[in-house]
Amino acid sequence: MTINQLLQQLEPTSPILQASFGLERESLRISKQSQTVAQTPHPVSLGARSYHPYIQTDYSEPQLELITPVAQSSKEALRFLTAITDVAQRSMDREEYLWPLSMPPKLEEEDIRIADLDDPFEVSYRHYLAEKYGKKLQSMSGVHYNIELGKDFIADLFRVSGYASEVHFKNDLYLKLAQNFIRYHWLLTYLYGAAPIAQQGFLKEDLTDCVRSIRNSDLGYVNDSDVQVSYESLEAYVQSIEDCVNDGRLIAEKEFYSPVRLRGSKHNRDYLTQGVTYLECRSFDLDPFHHLGISQETLDTIHLFILALLWLDSPQQVTKELETAKDLNHQIALSHPLEALPDKAPLKDILTAMAAVIQHFSLPHYYQDLLQQIEQQVADPRLTVAGRLYPHIQNHSLEDFGRLKGQQNQDQAWTAPYALKGYESMELSTQMLLFDAIQKGIHFDILDESDQFLKLWHQDHIEYVKNGNMTAKDNYVIPLAMANKVVTKKILAEQHFPVPAGAEFSDKQEALAYYPLIKNKAIVVKPKSTNFGLGISIFEEAASLPAYEKALDIAFAEDTSLLVEDYIAGTEYRFFVLDGKCEAVLLRVAANVVGDGRSSIRQLVEQKNQNPLRGQDHRSPLEKIQLGAIELLMLEQQGYTPDDRLAEGVQVDLRRNSNISTGGDSIDITNDMDTSYKELAADMVKAMGAWACGVDLIIPDRSKKASRTEPNCTCIELNFNPSMYMHTYCHEGPGQIITGKILAKLFPEILS
Amino acid sequence: MTINQLLQQLEPTSPILQASFGLERESLRISKQSQTVAQTPHPVSLGARSYHPYIQTDYSEPQLELITPVAQSSKEALRFLTAITDVAQRSMDREEYLWPLSMPPKLEEEDIRIADLDDPFEVSYRHYLAEKYGKKLQSMSGVHYNIELGKDFIADLFRVSGYASEVHFKNDLYLKLAQNFIRYHWLLTYLYGAAPIAQQGFLKEDLTDCVRSIRNSDLGYVNDSDVQVSYESLEAYVQSIEDCVNDGRLIAEKEFYSPVRLRGSKHNRDYLTQGVTYLECRSFDLDPFHHLGISQETLDTIHLFILALLWLDSPQQVTKELETAKDLNHQIALSHPLEALPDKAPLKDILTAMAAVIQHFSLPHYYQDLLQQIEQQVADPRLTVAGRLYPHIQNHSLEDFGRLKGQQNQDQAWTAPYALKGYESMELSTQMLLFDAIQKGIHFDILDESDQFLKLWHQDHIEYVKNGNMTAKDNYVIPLAMANKVVTKKILAEQHFPVPAGAEFSDKQEALAYYPLIKNKAIVVKPKSTNFGLGISIFEEAASLPAYEKALDIAFAEDTSLLVEDYIAGTEYRFFVLDGKCEAVLLRVAANVVGDGRSSIRQLVEQKNQNPLRGQDHRSPLEKIQLGAIELLMLEQQGYTPDDRLAEGVQVDLRRNSNISTGGDSIDITNDMDTSYKELAADMVKAMGAWACGVDLIIPDRSKKASRTEPNCTCIELNFNPSMYMHTYCHEGPGQIITGKILAKLFPEILS
């Protein structure tokens, strides 16, 4: 049975790009002050390492390990890594950043604190490794690239293979990939090697010149020379590692370090019966030119490289050919960054295989471009990562470069801190909730991105969340009640909460007959299902019968039912109530500018729009103020033009409505609002039976206290799925955290 | 302080029609077999009389008392009565009906079983009454009309009254109404009296001729002559009743029978401090020409009459004038049905007052019509109820008439038994749930009719229900998950339930790149949010690439995302799962007819459409089969014209789709479906975390059993808010009760 030439036999339409991916990236936390590894413990905000699926520590306490979940595409994997990196960066002390290079900055053995984990085995294992390899060597960081070939792709291969057992087939397939990976590892080292120098004293013997990748050479973090593992067969591979463990050359199977490892079971021997399920490629140095340590193009080039490994035949004389390949890799790893590939490198074999895969399966043009990039990098070493890094070496050091890049990356993470990088297309509240989930180590899966539908889980406990706060904590019928203004009012009124008096009509004659009852009152006439304020008439003074009739016609044009309600004068506040407690109070005021005695209104708007919280299309917590027709008319009505200079302290409103979406300001007044109103709002929500609810209260005079008997306010609306981000990132006021509280209530077992 | 001339002082726009209403109607259950009062106990299906708010028994076990909740209009009150009557009629033994007349059929004292109530006081009170008045007299039935004048109307009156205390004002107002009601009671007796004869032996002395209303005369159910109650003042009224109770002339205040009573407190004396709140007018005989015992026009005429009582001054010499009026009423009650009003009746006063009210307040023309009807009835006694009833008296008996009317009413109640009379405009499932609630004595309030939003309650326990089964029993996020096909599939697939394999695409190129994976399969291409089947392409055999691409274009024209799924062949069944248990299984088949060897297809359709379950626009459990363009084309494709005669037993489909809404048949196969499928469907719903859920399974061969490992079926959809009525009223099969189970789970404290 042979595993060669299988790919060649597949139909060109076979889904060979089908695969799943996982990435792991290590990186050191660096203190800005000491300019070396941070002495602080793993950030407390990152929850518990005993279960955190995404953010762990590797060997030492400051060495973060960022782990993506399994992704169905390399793009998704990089997106996961983007978000996890963003969370890690923003969970660290603001005086720290992530080191962007595989080789650490200058550090002393005693600066390196072994990771302070709960598991005593993991701690003692790290002490053993420290003893054996030295703590400095362990500080080298890189990226692991895990790939599992697609189910349908493997099924196609299996079909043409002639194998009887799919387990045996997959084992041979992945073994062949591992063999060929080692055979052609030197190409990856040439292209992506990025560990050209060690700080003085890092190596036992300082190198005389720059190289491509210390980490990928024998000077890297490698096993002792007496650890020899066979790739002749899977049985030999398993046996030789077991032998090393049995006679103490290795303390455990996982101490076997290799640029590539077979994966899928805890114990290697299980592969023989259960099968290898994926490949772990461990050789990638951190790409310092990419803030994630690896780029999309690199991920896809590796994928193409792996498919080429499958296209190529297996080595004939496995051990011998792999030894030769290892030597070649060592040589290239220790060659100068600007040195070309040696002639003996079997470059043509692998490049031809890549081209053949592209052609046979008519891969998208993108892969042709990737291959062309490789050819250019082969032709010109300056285009490789090491080649591009070389000019940044100053005084035989990359410390200044690393510091600059690291701080740039950290600053970038803190721009638009309301957004979760990689997920900016989702709603802000969902981004914030996802940030919190990743931070606390709660598993997440986006079941439907456009629907903002998340699955969150910890161990066996699953919670589904839609739009940030639609959860199992609310019951079904109550949000449906809140979606209906008439029903909401009836329920609140029955429990003697203050709501505007009024009536509903679906017949114009009946609505006209109601006139006597409202003829002396300020009223609002509105369609029952108001959409964006259409069809609403407000009479701040009593309406004449013709005016009332006209308002009825306007409202009936929008809906078959309308409401005639008392108009309530006063200021509107939004109370965010969660699980019976008011967590935030917001005042929204119309878009406005305040004069400084020098600037025109137009300039003041521009200045105000500089606030990084202001953006467009709900991608930011606040919207940029426009100077459109409505705003210009509003200015004109007040006797201004946009070019008028405003005296210091003079405030001019640019809108009548106070919506955030039209440039309004959000003012967090949670701490200033009298407790009596917060309690009343919470009581309303409890009476309604809702869990997460936004309560809109009109308060004429908030210096007075509220009570059940004298509420001094009126509830004009209850909102299901209330906005959360607007309470957190405010134009004014401290802002209140909401999504974190949602999460803590969903997972009290780990977050309370 | 005087209460006269107040109405005259009000502005014409004062809301004088504002009032709330309540109706009580008594009626005897009659056995078809014995043709006299039923000997059966109060129907068990009507829940417990200890708390039933709507359906009670009056004095005797067969005397039903139907009680409406307080209604905001007479129309709403009559609608309540319509529904409650419908429920009462359909909860009785099919061999019984309600007696439509105030005077009972021939009965013997020993036939009358005193109501078998739980409360020992109520039972002994009834025994005392039986002793005192005789059980026969207690069998007379009537309608009580309760009215409370509107809040704003009373406020307007109070404003012009000069009174300082609103309680005193209201007391004087309602006392005046009561005084004037007794003064003009004779008019109501003339118009609505409908108790012309008693069956032989009913009265101590048989009457020689027909009269207007035995029940409204002194021969009716009246207190002994030593019970004299003063209407001079409220204090005198309270005191004189108390005196009767204290010296034993009455056993309790409620034993005081009068055509009108002041109401609002349990003890009359409380009126002095808390105020009378409404008026109970007790004099109305059952109108045998209306199946509810009273008509809309009568209700509104009474309302106009009461407003006229308010327009008129109070009596000057209360006791004297009321005595005179009582005598007049007695005389008219015992006059012949075709006898005109005596000249001494102060007809002009009351008619003029009615006209004045109509004119002063510009009441709608409808009230003018009502007044005109009174004038016509006054002019021609044959137009009064007694006058119209007179011709039906045969052999000095109304038994035949009563039997006919009673049975007609009962038959009418059983037509369209899926509907709740009065609420036919609501969704069928909501009508059925309301029926169940009224039957079991659960309070209901329709918070929003067009939104199908109900409030149900028993004591302090409130449940809200929307669309029949959207309740607090489901949590918020799960129905939202079920509304999203992709999310539903992911959740089911993660738990290893059978769902069609497939993928979601929002990019055409990616969808095209997927072709290799489906190129040999039967597939469905559909927009992610399918609406009415638009944009769906089914390939029962593998699609060519151009056909696949066209299907993508069609789907993308409907939505920005589409699904490509395996096409699953087999029969689709709907499983209704509630609270972890499958309660019903339905097979839906396309609209079809089966030949009888004689009729044409057109005739067969007509015959099938005669089924009372078939109607139009979802007002019935099944829809009438159309012979429109689609059906004709379908016939043509099978080589038929609508006028072709079909051989016996030949079935011809008229539609390809099996929707009930296009004339399809519903077949209840709950009892035939193998338990293994019901359990699998229930397991899916439990895994999903839903309470009420419709599971659509495709089963290729239901002679095989289902299991978790070999499901032998595929779930193509989970439905939140699944239809319930279609399981209950089926074209074929026994039908399953669902709404009753919903209710029992909502109120287990009384229904389990």
UniProtKB/TrEMBL annotation, chains A, B:
Region ranges (Glutamate--cysteine ligase)? 1-333
Which EC numbers does the record give?
Answer: 6.3.2.2, 6.3.2.3
Residues forming the ATP-grasp domain are 489-752
The Gene Ontology CC terms held by the record are: cytosol
- What does the UniProt keyword field contain? ATP-binding, Glutathione biosynthesis, Ligase, Magnesium, Manganese, Metal-binding, Multifunctional enzyme, Nucleotide-binding
Q: Which reaction does it catalyse?
A: L-cysteine + L-glutamate + ATP = gamma-L-glutamyl-L-cysteine + ADP + phosphate + H(+); gamma-L-glutamyl-L-cysteine + glycine + ATP = glutathione + ADP + phosphate + H(+)
> Which GO-annotated molecular functions does the record name?
ATP binding; glutamate-cysteine ligase activity; glutathione synthase activity; metal ion binding
Q: Which domain of life is it from?
A: Bacteria
Q: Which cofactor does it need?
A: Mn(2+); Mg(2+)
The answer to whether keyword Methyltransferase applies is no
Q: Cross-referenced InterPro entries, in alphabetical order? A: ATP-grasp, Gln_synth/guanido_kin_cat_dom, Glu_cys_ligase, Glut_biosynth, Glut_cys_ligase, GshAB_ATP-grasp
Q: Does the keyword Manganese apply?
A: yes
Query: Which major enzyme category is it?
Result: ligase
Q: In which pathway does it act?
A: Sulfur metabolism; glutathione biosynthesis; glutathione from L-cysteine and L-glutamate: step 2/2; Sulfur metabolism; glutathione biosynthesis; glutathione from L-cysteine and L-glutamate: step 1/2
Q: Which SUPFAM superfamilies match?
A: Glutamine synthetase/guanido kinase, Glutathione synthetase ATP-binding domain-like
Q: Which family does it belong to?
A: In the N-terminal section; belongs to the glutamate--cysteine ligase type 1 family. Type 2 subfamily.
Tell me, in a sentence or two, what this protein's role is: Synthesizes glutathione from L-glutamate and L-cysteine via gamma-L-glutamyl-L-cysteine.
Q: How does it assemble?
A: Monomer.
Can you say what this protein is called? Glutathione biosynthesis bifunctional protein GshAB
